[in-house]
Input
Amino acid sequence: MVKVNENCIGCGACTAVCPDVFDLNDDGVAENILGEVPADLEESVKEAAESCPVEAIEL
Output
């Protein structure tokens, strides 16, 4: 399970890298919109986590 923690500042880096998994919610912070990440998106999710400036994505 991929989780976005409370460190998220809503910069949008993860949504730019992996829009199939991440989106900004009404509060302006990122969330995993899929829940369980399909195998074909795992590399993209890892790249999104690496691009997060506040390390808010927990793999």
Strands lie at 3-4, 22-24, 30-32, 57-58.
